[in-house]
Write a structure and sequence with these properties.
The chain is an all-alpha fold. Helices cover 82% and strands 0% of the residues. It starts with 9 loop residues before the first helix and ends with a helix.
Length: 191
Amino acid sequence: MKEYGEHSNVLKTILKESIRIIIFASIISSLGGLALENIKSIFISLMPLIILLPTLNDMIGDYGTIVSSTFSTMLHKGEVKKKWWTPEVQEMFMQIIIVAGITAFLSATIALAISKYYGAVIDAVFAFKVFFITIIDVMVLVCLLFITSIYAGLYYFNKKEDPNNFLIPITTSIADFGNMIVLTVLIILFF
């Protein structure tokens, strides 16, 4: 692992290592909006999903950050070696999946309640679709972020780089882009 001593410029080193990843992440995040642009007319008529979009983007990005930082810490502490599917990693995965499922359910409930309060017509089938879309979106992306964090973390760690400088920008951009793509696909399928 690179050492940051008193004669090194920590900020310069971190920026140099991260700038390409940050630029790449920004480009990918920008592309996600194009997916939603294609279904704009359908999307606008679905008030709960409009309410959920920023919530899901933030929530899924937060899960990517949690997985990335926790896995990086596990690597630095030596808890993960060549065999990465350790009991600690399995426990982290299960905790994230459970919390993600609960927060997705609660977010969909609140979005439906707000929509109903503002006059949206919501029947049982529509509510089920919103719950299903929200939970599937979150679960698919949390699994994708988990896999990405594991493989990218191992890759950068084995290159003697600090995974923290790379994983968080990568996972947050995948979360933003992936959320828009998965939502677009699920909206097309269910509406």
